[in-house]
Amino acid sequence: MHSVFVTGATGLLGNNLVRELVARGCAVKALIRSRAKGEQQFKHLQGVELVVGDMADVDAFATSLQGCDTVFHTAAFFRDNYKGGSHWKELEKINVEGTRRLLAQAYNAGIRRFIHTSSIAVLDGAPGTSIDETCLRADADADDYYRSKILADRVVLSFLQRHPEMHACMVLPGWMWGPADIGPTSSGQLVNDVVRGKLPGLIPGSFSVVDARDVALAQIAAARHGRRGERYLAAGRHMTMRELVPVLGRIAGVKTPARQLPLPFLYTLATVQEIYARITGKPILLSMATLRLLVREKDRTCFNHSKSEQELGLSFRALELTLTDTVAWYRDHDWF
To answer: Which end of the chain is more exposed for a tag (fewer CB within 10 A), N or C?
Structure first.
C-alpha cells in the first residue's frame, strides 16, 4: 500500500485517516468538495494531493484514481439524521450509486483493494444482546439512511461476486468522536452545545462511542489484513447520554444538565429544530429522524468486537482521552 485514494477526506473520519496514512509513508490523493476546506485541513501536511470532486459525479474525478493501489471510501450523505426532512434521492445517489460508480472506476484504474466504510446501521439485534457482524438488519427495520448503507454494502458484495480479482472489505464504525471535526458532525455539535451551555437536558437512548482515529486504524488494518468480503466492527464503547455528558462536562470544565427531557418535549424540540435547519441551513443536534432512531435503537448498541480484535488487532483508546483531545482541538481553533 503506497499510493491511496481517500473519499470524504475533510470529514471527521477521512481527515484522521489521511493523517494516519501519511504518517505511514503513503502518498494520499484526498477527495474534497471544497478546496478551501481541504487546504484548511491539510495545509501543513506533506504528501497529500487534493482532488476536488463529489461522490454525486464519480466519473468527473475518475482520472485521479490512476496510479493508486487502494481506495478508502469514507464519504457518505447522512444529512437527514441531523438536518431533518427526507433526502432519499441524495442518499441513494451518493451512498448507493456513488459507491457503485467508485468501485467500477477504481477497478478500471487498476485498483484491486477497496475499503468501504459501512456502519453499525446495517446490524440489528434484540435489546440488551451483544451484536456482531452476522446480525444483519432487515430492510423493513431500516430508515432511509440505514437503508442506503445496507444497499451500499450489497453493492460492494455484488461487485466482488462479478470481479473475483478485486479485494474489498467493510469497516463498521459507531458514533465517531475526535479532533478536527470541522463539519461539525453530531458529536462535534454536542461538544459545542455542552461547552456553550446550550444543552437543555439529557435525551434518552444509548450509543456506541468510538474515536475516529481508532476507526482510521481499523481501516488501515483492514486494508492489510482484512478478509475479502468481510465486515469488521469498530463500534466502540456502549454508553448512555446520562453517562457521556457528565464526563464531557468534567473534561471541558463546565456544568452539565442532569435532568432527562420527556419524550413529548423532545418531539416538539425536534420539530422546531428542523424548521430552524430549513431556514438557516445549519446542522442541528436533534432531528425527528435522530429522535425516532434513539427511541427505536435503545439498548441495541452493545457490539461484539472479537472478530476485529483477532483479525485486525483492533483496540480502543480511553473515552476520556478522546473527549480531552476533541475539546482541546475546538479550543485551540477558537470555536469556544
So the answer is: C
